[in-house]
């Protein structure tokens, strides 16, 4: 086995690398290989504003619509990717993005906003059927919010390509991170899109206190073409100025990291329930105590939502006269009847 050492990185004969410093959990991105999809379990969704694959969120303003899905098309060494397809094209005043927010507990060692702030390196694989220059961004949520826009070029249509960007620490004028460490410290946007009429452009490769909802002048706006696609996977954000090989964590470990922010009760199917049935329970005006032991400590007090099409479940093998579903709100469950069930999911954050 041959070794090459330089720039605090060891390169092995198979071209894999290991950098000095952080040697475990070096990747501050969760679900960077797109393996966890609790909400949709690989099914497509047209709901754009919100979370899709675990930890990954999109935002959209304007007329373009999209289909989003976890797919098994991926570069060598990966199995799944995040795919966005334009369903309805638009050239009006639109803005769209894909992002992940990172909790302060996981990046506090970067010391951003201080004189000894550390640089970071972002790397990911990308594929699109529209070539050209694309925009991404890193946001630091310090006392003063600062933005760092970067550009990358997709040279060949429908071809997987690796992107690597090294980013300096924000200036001390941004201020040291002083909020509770379980809040958003930073955000990575792998893609930002806007039409020219939406807002002013920004200068790439510099930190600035202005830049929300903006891209660079050169950026492609691929939602202008119906059927245009954008895919990415293998996202890594690490401390230091040199990219190292993607850090694979055990599947169960990666899923557990996701559970801190979102956990779906009842498994992956929306037709499953957690239930209690038997005896006369309190009336709808009374609380029914329920203890749900979640698999991870949540980032903060969870919010609950349900996937209930009707207040009473009266299909399948269950009787509507015996089954009534409790509505969950901020951890309180109220119900009526002789039994209850809970559908769907709980706990969204960041």
Describe what is shown at a glance.
By secondary structure, the protein is mainly β. The protein has one helix and 20 strands.
Task: Describe the secondary structure blueprint for this structure.
Layout: E1 3-6, E2 9-12, E3 17-19, E4 50-51, E5 57-61, E6 65-71, E7 81-88, E8 95-103, E9 120-128, E10 132-141, E11 145-154, E12 161-167, E13 184-194, E14 207-208, E15 229-239, H1 251-259, E16 273-277, E17 324-325, E18 327-329, E19 332-334, E20 339-343
Parallel strand pairs: 17-20
Antiparallel strand pairs: 1-2, 2-3, 4-5, 5-8, 6-7, 7-15, 8-13, 9-12, 9-15, 10-11, 10-13, 11-14, 16-20, 18-19
Report what the structure shows:
The strands form 5 sheets. This protein has a 7-stranded antiparallel beta sheet, with no helix packed on it. Helices cover 3% and strands 34% of the residues. It has one helix spanning 251-259; strands at residues 3-6, 9-12, 17-19, 50-51, 57-61, 65-71, 81-88, 95-103, 120-128, 132-141, 145-154, 161-167, 184-194, 207-208, 229-239, 273-277, 324-325, 327-329, 332-334, 339-343. It is mainly β. The relative contact order is 0.17.
User: Number of DSSP strands?
Assistant: 20
Coarse structural class: mainly beta
Strand order of the largest sheet: 4-5-8-13-10-11-14
Task: List the secondary-structure elements in sequence, H or E.
Answer: EEEEEEEEEEEEEEEHEEEEE
Shape: globular
- Mean of residue pLDDT values: 78
Low-confidence stretches: 267-290, 307-350
Beta strand %: 25-35%
Radius of gyration, whole Å: 23 Å
Question: Mind describing the biggest β-sheet?
Answer: 7 strands, antiparallel
How far apart are the termini? 43 Å
What share of the residues lie within helices? under 10%
Q: Count helical runs.
A: 1
